[in-house]
Specification:
about 325 residues, alpha+beta, three-stranded antiparallel beta sheet, 8 helices, binds adenosine monophosphate, binds magnesium ion
Length: about 325
């Protein structure tokens, strides 16, 4: 017998958010999650002004900025992940990201001079947090922060809290590539999550991974890019150079309980590339799993999910 569920979709935080919530209270809980997403969108400045984040970006060098508990915690996590990825993820990369205009109508290739200048304002160690006063302060002029690399992860974790609080049977939510599965569907607690083939149309998968109560987050150069003079410029920037990361990966998928962690790590590991990326994960984030898709059409997965991953035979990719 199939279980009742409720499907919904919304555009929020610059992306499509789809949900499937199982159980009698599916509809009600879906709407609660939607309201929460709207609230977070306002709070975290997903391309909106007049948020706490835009206030910091305006006056953060001149004075300390007092924050709400929630925004402070997200910024604190963002700095923590910047430290733990040795700056491959850098929450202060905003001046450079902004210059590329990847999210605007008119993206462009900045001059080398502009990039070097913007890079001078980048560096998470110049972001000073005071836990007692709950304030943030920039130590360099023209610094800016961008939570775009982790905010969707934070929102996904919030959705899980809502599912859990309302004791829903099971739920699936996808925030533009940040996937979370919670509880059970039908009478199984394992979900098969498709991994996009980075060289094919949206929706065409290269493989699938079995997960339960986990988040599955992918970063890839195919997700957002523009082309100029036949060169493709994607949206994941290497904080060392200020240019789109010259990665040997087409995409990387990170799997763990914590969606915000997955989000930061997927961006960082994409920047680092396969060797450095798998090193970071296996030595410092043992609890995570990963699926790497390389430029030379190989698929590699961490040892802890070998049993759970299947490749689509006709994908054209080699596996392990
Ligand atoms: P994701 O799609 O999760 O990999 O995040 C990419 C988004 O995070 C970009 O669109 C930028 O807004 C931002 N971003 C890009 N490169 C970095 C980086 N190295 N560190 C932090 N945020 C970044
Ligand atoms: Mg990310």
């Amino acid at each position: 017998m199939s279980m009742k569920y409720f499907d919904s979709e919304m555009f929020c935080m610059g992306t499509n958010i789809t949900q499937r919530v199982y159980g009698e209270n599916g509809e009600e809980v879906s709407f609660e999650v939607q309201r929460e997403m709207r609230r977070l969108e306002k709070l975290m400045n997903f391309y909106k002004t007049s948020s706490e984040v835009s206030l910091i970006n305006e006056v953060g060098f001149e004075r300390e900025v007092k924050l709400s508990k929630e925004v402070f915690e997200v910024i604190k996590s963002a700095k923590y992940f910047s430290e733990r990825t040795y700056g491959a993820f850098d929450v202060t990369l905003a001046p450079v990201i902004k210059m590329w205009g990847i999210f605007t109508e008119s993206p462009r290739v900045p001059s080398n001079k502009e990039i070097l200048k913007a890079l001078q304002c980048v560096g998470y160690s110049n972001l000073i947090l005071d836990d007692n006063k709950r304030t943030v302060r920039f130590m360099k002029e023209n610094m800016k922060i961008d939570l775009g690399g982790i905010a969707k992860g934070y929102a996904a974790d919030k959705a899980v809290q809502i599912y859990s609080k309302n004791r829903v049977k099971g739920a699936f939510v996808n925030l533009g590539g940040n996937v979370i599965v919670f509880g059970e569907k039908e009478d199984e607690d394992e979900w098969n999550i498709g991994i996009q083939n980075p060289l094919k149309m949206r929706g065409e998968i290269l493989g699938a991974v079995k997960v339960k109560n986990k988040s599955v987050v992918t970063s890839g150069s195919y997700v957002r890019y523009f082309e100029k003079d036949n060169i493709r410029y994607h949206h994941i920037i290497d904080p060392k150079t200020g240019y789109p990361a010259d990665s040997d990966l087409l995409s990387v998928t990170i799997i763990s309980k914590n969606s915000m962690l997955c989000d930061a790590l997927s961006t960082a590991v994409f920047v680092l590339g396969y060797e450095k990326g798998i090193n970071l994960l296996t030595h410092e984030f043992e609890e995570t799993s990963a699926i790497f898709i390389t430029n030379d059409k190989k698929v590699k997965v961490t040892d802890n999910i070998i049993e759970d991953f299947v490749l689509v035979e006709e994908s054209g990719f080699d596996y392990n």
